Amino acid sequence: MSLPCVIAVILNTNRRDDTLECLESLYRNAYPNQRVIVLDNASSDGSAAAIRERFPQTILIELDRNLGYAGNNNVGIEAALQHGADWVFVLNEDTILAPDCIERLVSVGEEDARIGIVGPMVYHYDEPNVIQSAGGILEADLAALHVGQNEVDIGQYPEPRDVAWVSGCALLVRRKLIEEIGALDERFFYYWEETDWCTRARERGWRIVHIPQARLWHKGVQRNYQPSPNVTYYATRNRLLFLRKHHAPPKVWVLVWLQNLRTLFSWSVRPKWRASMREHRWAIRQGMMDFLRGRWGMRSQQG
Hints:
Helix content: 25-40%
Strand content: 15-25%
């Protein structure tokens, strides 16, 4: 019996060195039936040429317009399905995989036909034994939180387990799930799209499983990570979109709007935030207004 075909999809935007390092770790993986698609988002750092030279076996798709994390990855997801993928591995370009990562993910994923998405244990790249994400939970107010974030791994998550969602830096997704519920929702553009994908899957009866024995290191979010105003904008707007898509009860809507208004007030009047958070205040206001106006996709800098 042949092994399921895994096709990794990596989105690169001027991250040549990170993408090359990610590809090197992918091709070191022991899993034999895998292919790789790289989506290059109009990079100007020579990424495309370097990938062709170092890894000619990689399928390279050069994008001509930016549809965001969700839309750009959907191009790769569709290409992976066309190339016969049984599992599509949506992977950030700034990740490094353990040599047995894919094998362990597939092994657990194939144990039950209702497992639709699996994710590895994600560690901080600069602190290799410190957990970045051991899967995700949704709290009562539908806030999405990483399990185990910034904990030293001492084996506290020993077995694969069902979770609400897994980190968007590395999702292995079953073909049948994509065919049933669709790919990423491009309205999100960036942020919350993986949580929405996993939630849509669970609403249709699919299992989302975190596999701690599959290990991966992610460069993009350090322990002291400080989000940019753009992240604040997308986090604000897209959380509201998530609430609407998944029919949040009225008390959650009230709580989330109050949280946003309280944050705006605090960042406006407290001396330590008044100057430094000016752009973030605007990002929250714009995110709330764009939600009300139904403005999705890329953030407009004009508001």
